[in-house]
């Protein structure tokens, strides 16, 4: 079975990852920036949005049992 997944705006995961590892930096997506324009269409509808990366947002880890 083959996959026909097309990269979004020519973003290639392997190239992006290689660049981040090589330059010791975290990935920042120029197509989906961590700012209000990615969340709100025209104006803020609620308070301050605080952008966090996975693993950083929770002070204590909680696992949920499925079922």
Automatic annotation (TrEMBL):
Superkingdom of the source species: Eukaryota
SUPFAM superfamilies: Cysteine proteinases (SSF54001)
InterPro entries for the chain: Calpain_cysteine_protease, Papain-like_cys_pep_sf
Gene Ontology terms describing biological process: proteolysis
Gene Ontology terms, MF aspect: calcium-dependent cysteine-type endopeptidase activity
Similarity comment text for this entry: Belongs to the peptidase C2 family.
Name of the protein described by the UniProt record: Calpain catalytic domain-containing protein
Source organism: Oryzias melastigma
High-level lineage: Eukaryota, Metazoa, Chordata, Craniata, Vertebrata
